[in-house]
Each structure stands twice: as structure tokens, then as C-alpha cells.
Amino acid sequence: MMTSLATAYLLPTLFNDASPLNPKFVIGNFGVPTIFLLASLGLPTSELSRSIRSPLNLPIQFLSLILIPSLNLVLSRTLFPLYLPPPYVSGLLLLSALPTTVNMCIALTTNAGGNVATAVTNAVLGNLLGILSTPMWFSIMMKSSSGANISFLKTLTGLLKKVLLPMVLGQFLRLTPALKFYSSRKKLAKLASESILLSIVLNSFSNAFSTSTTLTVSTTLTLAATTVTLHLLYFATSFKVFGALGVDRKNVIASSFVSSHKTLAFGLPLIRQVFANDPNLAALVAPLMLIHPLQLFVGGAMKEKLLAYAEEDGGK
Asked: Structure pTM?
């Protein structure tokens, strides 16, 4: 992880979107679908089916798409303006309106011993609901209607192609000898997923370091501290809520990751499109660019404690 960040800082043009390596195309069209294919291949169909009907789905989506944006709306009018310039306050608002990550929260849930089926179901569901809820929140938060022509069909098509199709293919492959091949090489599959995640971090920060010239060191540190604090607050809140509801421990872990994460893959293109003509565009996307890899840092740091938590009492 540190190597990825150092490389992005020292050689930002090597792996940004304008690079001849074309990481945006490679990661988007091959890397992300591969993560979902591997996740589905290791997921029993019965477990996925049970998760789709889970009553957990409603509270997870409520926390992610309603409660967190509402709380950030209050903070943006009380606390954030005390120490951040207005454009960055707006960026924090837009960040809170986004749905969860998909590949990252699934990978972190897997590594932490959580219920992968719950993570997969709600990550996909959250992004589908976000197609409608996020532009609505943008309009409310920025006190104006987003006049941009947002292609909901294009967004939905992307989710179907890069998320749902690999998931369906993975379930189909479970019926073939591919399952035995996968089962004997789980460590290699895990390494592949983690490598793709690191490439996403490298690409994200390469873009940030090569374009966000207005982001000073002091502002970067302040934003990083704020976004991490908010992320930890929302993760802890979700953890306590689902624990109080009597949810089993593996589902508490999955639900907490899904509820507290925010997606770069969905959010960055949407913010860029809606606010393409805004002179403060770099400030609007800065919190999202910062929190994306920091979520991975935080999730990785909690891995051992969450694994121990999941194993206590058989994960109940």
C-alpha cells in the first residue's frame, strides 16, 4: 500500500488516466469484473439466495443512503465551516451522498471473516438505489437542481456488465470443474483481488497528485483527518446498531463495512459530470479521492480484531 502511494506521488503520470498504460480501461473492464467473478465463485448459491431475502437489507441501505447524508448535512452547516473552505465542505457533502463501494467492501468483508453474501447483495443493491438517491441528494445539498444530463441507463448498464454479469458467471462456474480449480487456489485468488485493489489505489492517487494542484498539504491533512474520523464514526455507529439488533457477528461485520463505505467508481464520474463547469471541481472531488484508499487502510488495520470477533462463539 505504501509503495503504491509513494509511486503515485513520485510518478503521478505513470498510472493516471492519461497514462499510455490506460489503467482506467484495464481496471474498469477487467480488474473490477474479476473481483466479482472470484467473489461469486467462492460464494455458495444458497447463501447468496438467503442474503437477498434478508431483513438486514433495509437498515443497511437506510444507514448508507439516508442517515449518513442527513448527518453530514447537519455537520456541514455547523462544524465543517469552522475549519474548512466552502468548496471542501461541499465535497464532504457530496461524498456522504454516494452509495457504498462494491469491490472494496466485499474484499474487506472476506478478509475480516464477515458474511460475504450480505456484502455482495447490499453493495450491488446500494449502487442500484444510488442511481436515483445520489442525484437527489446532490440537488438538496447544493440547494439547486442538477441540470446535468445524467445517463441513468449508462450507469445501470455499467453495473450490469461489471458487477451482475460476473456474479452470474461465477455462480454458473460453481457447477463446473472450475469450482475445484478455484478451491485449490484460494490464496492465489485472494492475492489477485488484493492486487487489483492496490492498482485502484495507485490509479486514484496518481489522478489526485497529477490534477489536484489546489490541494495544499495542510488542507490535505485536514481533509484526511476529517474523512477518516467520519468513516470511523459511521462504522462504529453501524457496528453498534447491528449488534444491538441481535444480528450475528459475521453479518455485523459485513453490514458495518457496507453502511460506512463510499464509492469512488460511482461517485467520481458522477461528480465530474454534474459539476463539470464548476471552477471548484478539484475541491469537490478531493474528499472522495482521499477517503477511497484510506477506507482500505482502516479496514486492513481492523482485520485481525474483526477476525477474532467473528470467530467468538462461532461467529454468533
From this structure: 0.71
